[in-house]
# Entry
Amino acid sequence: MNTKELTILAEKNRKRLVEVVYRAKAGHIGGDLSCLNVMTALYFHVMQGLDPQAPKAPNRDRFVLSKGHCVEALYVTLEAKGFLKSEVLDTLGQYGSILSGHPTIEVPGIEVNSGALGHGLSIGVGMAIAAKMDQKTWKTYVLMGDGEQGEGSIYEAAMAGNKYQLDNLVAILDRNHLQISGDTEDVMPIDSIKERWSAFGWDVIEMNGDSMEDIIKTFDAIDYQNRKPHLIISNTTKGKGVSFMEGIAKWHHGVLNEQQCLDAVKEIEERIEKLEA
# Structure
């Protein structure tokens, strides 16, 4: 897919996300929307070996959603990729559904149960070490939230990633500046994140996570032979793509009413129409 096609797909995923979260009456829509562009790019441009007919294909790239509360973004991406049937996704929020509020391995295409913040990078480090030990070429990608950077286990994993020279590991930090309690810089400041991770020995790259063009350019430029783990600081907007949600902390897990859902869908549909013209 080229950049325009990926941008259109991300918008279609965004529309589906809004409808799914509205129907379920639950979800973490603000963070879902901020990471959705990156997730679309990962599954449709970056990661290799993904096959809905063989979800455990040995040489597939692995993805870990460390900020597991944003699982709705992952669900719509898996649906678009063919791992999840629409009728299954429509059961989100219903009794007996296999879809939970955090990723579980009951769902095809999900590698690990996640959502206890701070754990995902440690799991990703383990996966990357396993690939090195087995002399395999597959890569591991871990998507973290900026709010979880206050967890100490993140930095233990960062040290291990450097020690074992895990150039087959890419961590993405969804830097939307807002967590459940407010601005990250008021809760637990992390503005020194680039210097911090560079000091840990990581290859640190910044990108505009709201721009599909910049996302693709950044991922395509990763040097997987430099003997360093990679951190991409993805500067994003909480609630991206729905104007009345953008940059507002309450939409961390806000629930849309009917009119808000209609307004959000209309806004997204208008963008899709312009992109497809």
Q: What stands out?
A: Strands lie at 62-65, 140-145, 169-175, 178-179, 182-183, 203-208, 230-235.
